[in-house]
Each structure stands twice: as structure tokens, then as C-alpha cells.
From TrEMBL:
Species lineage: Eukaryota, Metazoa, Chordata, Craniata, Vertebrata
Record-annotated membrane-spanning stretches: none
Domain of life of the organism encoding this protein: Eukaryota
EC number: 3.6.5.2
Swiss-Prot/TrEMBL keywords: GTP-binding, Hydrolase, Nucleotide-binding
Family: Belongs to the small GTPase superfamily. Ras family.
Official protein name in the record: small monomeric GTPase
Catalytic activity: GTP + H2O = GDP + phosphate + H(+)
GO molecular function, one term: G protein activity
Organism: Pitta sordida
Length: 187
């Protein structure tokens, strides 16, 4: 429901997907054109299925959403956060800093709250990710602000990676020059 709200500005009250979807959107963020692909897995956990292996490797960022009025969804979100971190450690042998956001949704249902704000905040700190609570039903602008923050975080990670490339090419040039006997002073 959060992705649909962001993409269409509409809120679907009884959103319960039993199928995976990939949404695409082109947008301009800080003067830069972005082609966005959002993978929205089946919102109904299928017997605790946490495979998502392929998606964990191609994604540049993750938004893990739980319902503040449903303790089971919080437990599932916790398992997903663990799975994301585990998959990145296993692939890279070190922690990859991907953008991960934990979002407590349905803030408009505070009277039915089963998961406290402090619990969500603690899980986010323990998982080394960012955290917010919002209401997709009532506040479209909060949803846009959260997605914008995620996208800025992801694009800033790309800028850091781009800045590292030239130093790697200089090192490669030095290595090639050393192999072929051309010595020159380091710059």
C-alpha cells in the first residue's frame, strides 16, 4: 500500500497483495533524472517465507514496513532486516552500506497499537538502519518525504562510489606503468 500510495497518490484501504509486483517510475530528484524500480513482494507472508535471494542482491535500498497494530508484522520485519544484513555480509564478506529504512505504518491506528515507537526505534538502531512512523492512509506527504529520503540516501551512496573510482584507476595506471618499467613520481 505504501508503494502504491507513493506512485499514484491514491490510498487503497483494503490493500492485500497475494502477488509480487515491480513498479517503475521516472522522476526528477535534485535535478537528476532517476529511473526507479520498486519491488513489492506479496504482502501476505507465505508460511514465513523469507527467500527473496535474488531481490536482495539487485536492490540498492530496502523499505521494510510493519503495521504498528500488528505484532506479527513487526516480528516478520525484524526477520527481514536480519535476512538483508545476513545476505550482504555473506556476499561481500563485509557489511555493505545499502539504504535500509524501517517504517512503522498505520500511525492513524494508535488506539490499536501493539508495537511501541521505542520498539521500532530500538530495532532500527540494532539493525543499523533509519526509522520512521507514518500513516499511508492519512498523510501522502509523509510517504513522499520518506521515499525522497530513501532515494537521496541511495543516490548519495552512488556519488561516494563514483568518487572512489578515479583513485582505483590511478592505482591501476601505476601498476601498469610499474609492470612496463615506466617510473614516474606519484601525484
Amino acid at each position: 500500500a505504501l508503494a502504491v500510495r507513493f506512485l499514484t497518490r491514491r490510498f487503497i484501504g483494503e490493500y492485500a497483495s497475494n502477488a509480487e509486483c515491480i513498479y517503475t517510475k521516472h522522476l526528477c530528484l535534485d535535478g537528476r533524472q532517476i529511473h526507479l524500480e520498486i519491488y513489492d513482494p506479496c504482502s501476505q507472508p507465505q508460511r514465513g517465507k523469507l527467500s527473496l535471494t535474488d531481490e536482495l542482491h539487485w536492490a540498492d535500498g530496502f523499505i521494510i514496513v510493519y503495521d504498528i497494530s500488528d505484532r506479527a508484522s513487526f516480528a516478520f520485519a525484524k526477520a527481514l532486516l536480519y535476512r538483508i544484513r545476513e545476505s550482504h555480509i555473506g556476499v561481500c564478506k563485509k557489511m555493505v552500506e545499502s539504504s535500509v529504512f524501517l517504517v512503522g505504518n498505520k500511525q492513524d491506528l494508535c488506539h490499536m497499537r501493539e508495537v511501541g515507537w521505542d520498539e521500532g526505534q530500538k530495532l532500527a538502531i540494532d539493525s543499523k538502519c533509519q526509522f520512521c512512523e507514518l500513516s499511508a492512509a492519512e498523510h501522502y506527504q509523509e510517504v513522499v518525504a520518506m521515499f525522497t529520503k530513501v532515494l537521496r540516501n541511495i543516490t548519495s551512496n552512488f556519488k561516494v562510489k563514483e568518487k572512489r573510482r578515479p583513485s582505483g584507476s590511478k592505482s591501476m595506471a601505476k601498476l601498469i606503468n610499474n609492470v612496463f618499467g615506466k617510473r614516474r613520481k606519484s601525484v
